[in-house]
Design brief:
The chain is an alpha+beta fold and 250 residues long. The protein is 57% helix and 15% strand. It has five helices and five strands. A five-stranded mixed β-sheet has the order 1-2-3-5-4, covered by helices on one side. 24% of the residues are buried. About 5% of the residues have low confidence.
Length: 250
Amino acid sequence: MALGFAAAQARRRHRRALDERGWLLERERQAAASGAVAAERARIARELHDIVSHNVSVMVVQAGAAREVLAASAADVPPDVAGALAAVEGAGRDALKELRHLLGLLAPTADGSEEHFEPQPGLDGLSRLVDRIAFAGLPVDVFVNGEPRPLPAGIDTTAYRIIQEALTNALKHGEADRAEVCVRYSERSLRIEVLNTGPARPARRTPPVGTGRGLLGLRERIAVYGGDFDARRRFGGGFRVRARIPLDAA
């Protein structure tokens, strides 16, 4: 009888241990799922900021330029207006393509099939970005040091976003006559520097008050790859953004 009682107690303890183990595993699974959802939401927030902030900022600048040209014209509409409106249209199309890419991740098609989306931008699109910024009123000089080579997709997009965010801020705040972009390829790292050059001048408009999500998002992106990020005002005016992304571990 004593043996039977002991065996029953052992079975109860075993069941309790299994129940506790199952509860702990379920808690861990829920925590992992919640963490994954939070990380994905943060990633999407950064992507939306990059896409909407850049393209809409360019569109607003171009719309303002078109309005000023129209207001100054006495009769015929100058050719500059058509160019400005074309730039607005191009920036809008770029925003729509990138938004479709992100929305496709969140809302797949009803039949479960995969829709074709444009790839995320990389350094191969740098010339188009620079042309668009220059047309909006901020000339940009680009310097490439080292031998350019294919980069992992995530690093390629991150490098593009660093330059995009820095140039957009310079254009939006209107504190620079020119900007410089330097991309340095080395054996173990990719280095990017974007800075405003020339004398500072009064802003064309009051800088918007924001939360700094763009720079914070860049810092978080680069930290994923074990890189370094620094953004600060330059002595005498302007702004400087520097980033280093390791390539040996990519």
